[in-house]
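RECORD TYPE: protein structure
NAME: Transporter
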Amino acid sequence: MRTSVLSAWLLAALPAVASAQEAGNLLGDPFVQVTAAMAACPVPRGPYVTADSVRRAAHGRTQMGGSCYRVGRCRLPNAYLYDREIIPRVSLYIREDGRFADTSVWVVGAARMVTLMGCVQSKEQADALQQAVALVDDVLGVANLLMVGTQGPPPYRLVGDTTPDF
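PREDICTED:
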């Protein structure tokens, strides 16, 4: 009887154990804070995926940009290989520009796409920042998730949110 109860408990616990898996920035997409002038700015979570998501995305991420490279339009064989070069240049450009010193901005790179998150002083400043980042060499596009001010719900996930990106 005691063995049956223990067996039943173990069987019931298996789905919980199986669903507990590693999660976080498992793909290593660059994610950095560039400016920090608005202390009350909601902190973005950054890239967050599960191990299962990584396995499902592996083939697509491996192939991303391969055809571009094969035909000679791109210098690297995979779009994600650019990100480790792009994000430091984007960060430097934002900091050195001067127009964005009064902001709190984080950037993430994935497949030559740069996502801007954080807080700015005005819509015009957000637009200017998006346009400036688009000028950085090898940037394919810019997603603007910046919010004006620090009040209200941000258009991005916050630190502590464990909902996977995909």
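COMMENT: The domain at 21-48+81-148 is CATH 3.30.1340.30 (Histidine-containing Protein; Chain: A;).
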